[in-house]
UniProtKB/TrEMBL annotation:
A GO BP entry: DNA-templated transcription
Keywords: Nucleus
Location of region: Disordered: 513-552, 564-598
MF terms (GO), sorted A to Z: DNA binding; zinc ion binding
Protein name in UniProt: Xylanolytic transcriptional activator regulatory domain-containing protein
Annotated ranges, domain Xylanolytic transcriptional activator regulatory: 159-233
Residue spans of biased composition, Polar residues class: 517-526, 564-579
Family matches, as CDD domains: fungal_TF_MHR
Keyword Plastid: no
SMART domains, alphabetized: Fungal_trans
Domain of life per record: Eukaryota
Amino acid sequence: MLTSALSPMTPTYSLPLYIKRLPARFGPDDVLYLEKKGALTIPAAPLRDELLRCYAEFVHPYMPLLNMHELVRTIDRSDGTDPISLLLFQAIMFAGIATVDMRYLKAAGYNSRRDARREYFQKTRLLYDFDIEVDRISLIQSLLLMTYWYETPDDQKDSHHWMGIAVSLSHTIGLHRNPAKSQSMDPAKQRLWKRMWWSTYMRDRLVALGMRRPTRIKDADFDVPMLSLEDFEEDVLSDEPSCMPADCTYLRDAEKQRKLAVMCIAKVKLCMCISNVLSVQYSVLHNNHGIAGEEGITRTTMMLVKKLDPELTEVQACDKQLQEWKEALEDEAKYVEPTWQDVDSGNEDVVLNRSLLHMIYYAALSALHRPQVLPSTAMPPRETQAPQLEASRKAVRLAASGITSIASALYNLDLVRYLPTTGITTLLPAIIIHLLDIKAPEEATRKASLQGFCQCMQIMARLRDIYAAADYSTAFLEAAIRKAEITLPQRSAELKEPRSVITSAQALMEAGRRLTSGRQSSSSALTPPPETRAKPNETGNNGGVEGPSQLTDDDLARQLSSYLASTPPDSDHQPSISQHEGGGGGPQFSFESSGGISIPVADFEPDFDSMINLDEAGETWLLEDGAYAAMQGGESSGYLMDTDWMMKGIKEGGLEMSV
């Protein structure tokens, strides 16, 4: 309740008819407070409509929580019939801001995208805290959208927090049970409940993968059948005037809806593979137990860390499951190199969702095999046969190359700006592998890894405009480079010169320029490692994907140094390449797998995902410049725990270090 000082004032708010009325229990003071905080303010029609379009095209397809057609028709009617939850509506507006064109936000008075996202999340959270909504379906839908918020590492209510509440509420209403067994639920509601449950499941797995936190949903605790195409909406909007802009083809194209539904089902099945990867390779560790950080905030203690002795037969089974998932993909979900024609024809949503699906696949492949590559810093290394290590090295390099290639294709088409926070989750393991391979003995691998690192950092720069997590990830990487003191292998002409220690991204890029100084300055195409190049008969649709626009090493050094040191400008959402024909100059990486990777069973001790603070080793590695903060929250923060092995790997020879 408010203080009496505000009581004499009378609320002046008015909600549109398509929004549900505030509960009668709310007094004038409560209403006035919400009004003063902007929680009752609905965006003007131009911004509202664009946010709805962005939500429909770039959020709903991979998390189909709502009956989108019903929501649009409710807004169009605006007659008070079946009104929308205010909490849910503000959550939808918040989710849409990440991808809306910046000119709409500036017209509404916002100086940056982050400011707009922060304001709309605060509106949503305030409404949640006021218990304005009692319908648990609307609450679950809103909470799942709230998991996309992360701003500061010391926020006690992070993605994992909101995920936990959403799962808890789901269990209280029986969302985890087969809706077909209900005697009172009509078919339309059954379909919605199935989509909501599997959306909750997918979000839980991706948050766990990125944050290295335990999953909230246990596989044995639900019996909801797998999604099918029949569970998705079969509807199209008419050509009549609508709040949904005319250029939104998704809700008006039944075939596009079917394609995206196929991809969504494939993503659910992939998240089931991810669940197995996490259970096989990681266990819960209570780290930093009872330790308080700055301002007395107790640090997170529950994290997923590398198991000391995983069953290699289980690793084999997970690898086989991932390969079978990829081989079983329907044509609509198989990766196809996107083109400007896809963008010009209004298929950005199809391109984005297909690309993100495969980036998540490679992130899962990396998470499975990374622990096999380097020895534990907490345990003495054991004998490992070369073929076993080589299989995992190829797998993580394949994953890094695949992520980089797909993301680079999105970058060329100016579609990176549509990636959700999961994009950061997938980029980080690729960047880390590239950093390790910069120290590789083979010159081709070093060159390819340096180029891949630069590509990924350019892409991360675009995401900094939208997500604070990208800033913290960047701070971590800069600190990691500084702390690792990288020294690259010298060319024969430089053997008489003393080796210089690399302690910054700028120095790293300058070293890369020296390694590749024999090339013509007009070309920056680098050869990928041999195991990641496609064979002559394996190109086609899954062949090489062009990287970001062609730059010399000096250009990359200047851009990366400037990027790491500055706050990103607001994106104007202009294409990265000025003309469609200009996209052919970047380096190409072919990443199509030739089949499943067979992992021979042997007795060896890997630990690729050790924690930054190893209680069992008695070590604490402190990052400068606040980079430690990057490891305390956010959907991608778990990858930033991979520091001790990264330092050891870079200093001792990258992925090729002997164990």
